[in-house]
Specification:
130 residues, 6 helices
Length: 130
C-alpha cells in the first residue's frame, strides 16, 4: 500500500508505457523510499492465458529497459542503486539481443545500450574512488 502523496511525488504511472508501467513506478519509488518485503507470498502468478499482455506486446523487457534508462538518466539513484540498475539493464538487454538474433536481426542496438550504461557506471565508480 502507498499513500497518494507518494504516488503524486514520484509522478504516477507513465502514460508513454503501454505495459510494465507498474515496474517503472516501483523503480522510481524504490530509488527514494525504503520498500519492505514480506516473507509470505501474497500473489500467485499464472501464465499462458490468452489475455495476458505478453501476447499483445513482443519483448516486454524493452519497456523495462526503457524504465531503467529513465531511472538511470534521472540522477536519482544512489551509487549502489545505480550499479544494481545497470546490472539488471545489461541482463535485460542481453535477453532482448538474443531474441532479436533468433528472429534474424542483430540485436546490436541492445548491446550498444548495455555497453553505454556499463561505461557510464565504470566512469562513476572511478570518480567515487577519487
Amino acid at each position: 500500500m502507498l499513500r497518494r502523496t507518494l504516488f503524486d511525488r514520484v509522478g504516477g504511472f507513465d502514460p508513454q508505457l503501454p505495459a510494465c508501467e507498474d515496474y517503472d513506478l516501483w523503480l522510481r519509488i524504490g530509488a527514494t523510499e525504503p520498500i519492505h518485503l514480506l516473507d509470505t507470498a501474497l500473489v500467485i502468478k499464472r501464465g499462458g492465458h490468452p489475455d495476458q499482455l505478453s501476447r499483445r506486446f513482443w519483448g516486454m523487457d524493452r519497456f523495462r529497459v526503457r524504465s531503467l534508462q529513465k531511472l538511470l538518466d534521472s540522477g536519482v539513484p544512489s551509487p549502489e542503486q545505480r550499479r544494481l540498475a545497470v546490472a539488471v539493464l545489461q541482463k535485460k538487454c542481453a535477453v532482448l539481443a538474443r531474441g532479436a538474433r533468433k528472429r534474424g536481426r542483430t540485436g546490436a542496438e541492445y548491446l550498444r545500450l548495455a555497453a553505454r550504461y556499463a561505461d557510464a557506471a565504470s566512469a562513476d565508480a572511478a570518480l567515487e574512488s577519487l
